[in-house]
Amino acid sequence: MPNLPKEHQRISIAITGASGVQYSLRLIEVLLKADYPLNVVISKAALLVFAMEMDVQLGNQPQVQKERLLALVGVDKPDLLRIYGVEDWSAPMASGSNTSRAMVIVPATTGALSAVATGQSNNLIERAADVMLKERKPLVIVLRETPLNAIHIKNMLTLTEAGAIVMPANPGFYHRPKSVDDIIDFMVARILDQLNIEHDLMNKWGDDSSVK
């Protein structure tokens, strides 16, 4: 981790109701292991996706969600993880005076994409993303949808022009993945690259050593 006060390294992660919550879990795991403090917000639809895709019940209370998330990722660092309700307007990332170093929406629905692109700020996820844009801080949106219509594409252009990084969950296969975990790591590695965070999830292109 760069030599900055821990709070200055805090990263916000928002999980919305798109397929692919495995990406968010792996990102949380890697960042906690690297001692990055995290804010996490989980939408109501995302809770359904956890149940559908992983048979995981995270519950509705932030403290319960925190305990179950830590158990899921296998990292015992509760002091680094803060969970906020999607309607918690008192959360620090709702204000530019106490925002995070960066924010990642992973996975992101096209609904979340649209809400952020139009500045709706109807919940904490949307407001926190709006704050990142207005404060000119990194906002990474990992869109999980296909095919895309003209509205989605226009919203991606709007957000890109506003300073966000739009990253469709579009893993490559040149690293010859041997498992679903390898495919997940490909996308998480790309997210970490955009956050300028070192990792060893896979080798850089052109690295002659064996791909991990």
UniProtKB/TrEMBL annotation:
Domain named Flavoprotein: residues: 10-195
Annotated binding of FMN, by residue: 17-19, 43, 144
UniProt-recorded Gene Ontology molecular function terms: carboxy-lyase activity; flavin prenyltransferase activity
Sequence positions that bind dimethylallyl phosphate: 174, 190
InterPro entries on file: Flavin_trans-like, Flavoprotein, UbiX-like
Matching Pfam families: Flavoprotein (PF02441)
Similarity comment text for this entry: Belongs to the UbiX/PAD1 family.
Biological function: Flavin prenyltransferase that catalyzes the synthesis of the prenylated FMN cofactor (prenyl-FMN) for 4-hydroxy-3-polyprenylbenzoic acid decarboxylase UbiD. The prenyltransferase is metal-independent and links a dimethylallyl moiety from dimethylallyl monophosphate (DMAP) to the flavin N5 and C6 atoms of FMN.
Cross-referenced PANTHER family: FLAVIN PRENYLTRANSFERASE, FLAVIN PRENYLTRANSFERASE PAD1, MITOCHONDRIAL
Name by which UniProt lists this protein: Flavin prenyltransferase UbiX
Native source species: Wohlfahrtiimonas chitiniclastica SH04
